[in-house]
Amino acid sequence: MKVTDMTAIPVSVPVEKAYETSLSSAPGQQSDTHDHIVVRLETDAGIPGYGEIAPKAAWPHGLTQGACTDLINDTLASTVEGRRVNRIARIVDDLEAQLSGETFPIYGIDVALHDALGKRVEVPVYELLGGPKNLRREFPLHYSIGIMEADKMAADATTAAEKGFTAFKVKVGGSDHEAELAGIEAIAEVVPDARIRIDANQGWYPEEAIRKIRELDVAADGLELVEQPVAYDSRDGLRRVREAVDPPILADESAFSPRDVADLARHEATDIINIKLAKTGGLHRGKDVATVAGAHSLTCFMGSMVELGIGAAASAHLTISTPRITYPTGVMNQYVEDTLIKNDGQWEVDGPTFTVPEIPGLGVEPDHEAIERLRVD
Hints:
Layout: E1 3-14, E2 33-43, E3 49-53, H1 65-80, H2 88-98, H3 104-121, H4 125-128, E4 138-140, E5 143-145, H5 150-162, E6 167-171, H6 177-190, E7 195-199, H7 206-219, E8 225-227, H8 235-244, E9 249-251, H9 258-266, E10 272-275, H10 277-280, H11 283-295, E11 299-302, H12 309-320, E12 353-355, H13 368-373
Parallel strand pairs: 5-6, 6-7, 7-8, 8-9, 9-10, 10-11
Antiparallel strand pairs: 1-2, 2-3, 4-12
């Protein structure tokens, strides 16, 4: 089965719930919509495949929505069209050779290829990736809380706890550290068994990070982990923080490729690797990242760029097929009015665990009417 056509479709989806981070709170980063790209490929067997991209221009190796769309439609499509969908590894190699480390466009293409291949051979994508670990399609979830006032954090955590959540990921690294301390204390008070991890999104300098992490660790009565406290390219800074604080360190913006993981391990700069398909360039390279992490005795966490239905499904498939991923994940957290899939009921979260549907391919049915309605090109 060969690819006959591939198209990137830019969409802008209204936000239903704000999710502020130290990056999104920067001047010019606020928005009442989220930009995404749907990648659609057609095959000579009449079986389509779909992928998704949540572009982040402010990230390392990041691109705007327009740049991603143009790269796929004007440059990368010709590399994929005419190729067999089961040649994913070679296609990814060829796409990487055309770019300079930009992974976001490859991510959408890789996922679309996996979706089409899974449909062709009539198995879920997680089977293509090695099958569900422990033969279970269920995985644990955390509840994400953005930067906000302490009373709102407490209310948000209380609502989540009533649904059974005990793992919380809280964004920090903003301009008001005292408010963040109060927020963490409030969560720990209203949910006594809360397992709190924090994410600074590179918001601190090393010495600042050490001081603030120690204070937040006390406020939380013990943090589960700390995600990306310092700049992505500061290996020594990350190592200094890791050596000085008690909670494990999770590398996110620092860890895109298998080479990054090996370099972080060599510097003894992290305990955990955050795998995000947008960073790895899709499922194929995501498995490579997990393999290299395992070779260096590092555990993994499945992260998200706050994707819609297609992207969330792809992350869920990697999560249940990768034994190195051991922490509760937020890949199913979504903050928009429309996930752009019709069967969102099968992908709806109502508690602290989620079971991936046993459906060929990604198991999602794109809502073409919604995609056209929210299209922005």
